[in-house]
From TrEMBL:
Keywords: Calcium, Membrane, Metal-binding, Repeat, Transmembrane, Transmembrane helix. The gene is Mctp2. It is a multi-pass membrane protein. The keyword Metal-binding applies. This is MCTP2 protein. Its main location: membrane. It holds the Pfam family C2. Residues 1-59, 93-204 form the C2 domain. One of its GO terms (biological process) is regulation of neurotransmitter secretion. It comes from Copsychus sechellarum. PANTHER family: C2 DOMAIN-CONTAINING PROTEIN, MULTIPLE C2 AND TRANSMEMBRANE DOMAIN-CONTAINING PROTEIN 2. Belongs to the MCTP family.
Amino acid sequence: KSANPQWREQFDFHYFSDRKDMLDIEVWRKDNKKHEELLGTCHVDITALPTKQTNCLELPLEKRPGSLLMLIAVAPCTGVSISDLCVCPLGDPNERQQISQRYCIKNSFRDIKDIGFLQVKVLKAVDLMAADFSGKSDPFCVLELGNDMLQTHTVYKNLNPEWNKVFTFPIKDIHDVLEVTVFDEDGDKPPDFLGKVAIPLLSV
């Protein structure tokens, strides 16, 4: 019930060189669980923004009244990675020793914001639900931790996909929950939900 909402939320997008350079933003209005209305859209050209500083932008909504006030910072991507099993970031014994030293008790207060990081190996899924008429699915896996999101590639026509990917997330809140969701890719349509699991970091 507000024409001037304040969200004050931070989202971290992992921007790699092979991704598109436009940040697309949509504003939606929700009446109830079933009815939603698009209030407007705007776009930000990431390549035009100065790096290593916070940019304050007032973005008018296209063809609609209103604007968005956003703070956008473009910085080198640190602490997050996607790799194959054979080049796993924690596979090197020397690197493991450095990390153990970095997070040992005597160094606890050296960098308060550096809580640690989580490494997840997504190996495979078994006996997924068939989402296509052919009796198969085109599954991919999405990992979310706080407002960070990474995903695997799609394995087509398979109910027992093998991804064999390693994902590394920086941890910002030890009370966060890792959510792992499997979707079926459906062309231009929204993906179909195939299953989900939630893992509290405190349980690891």
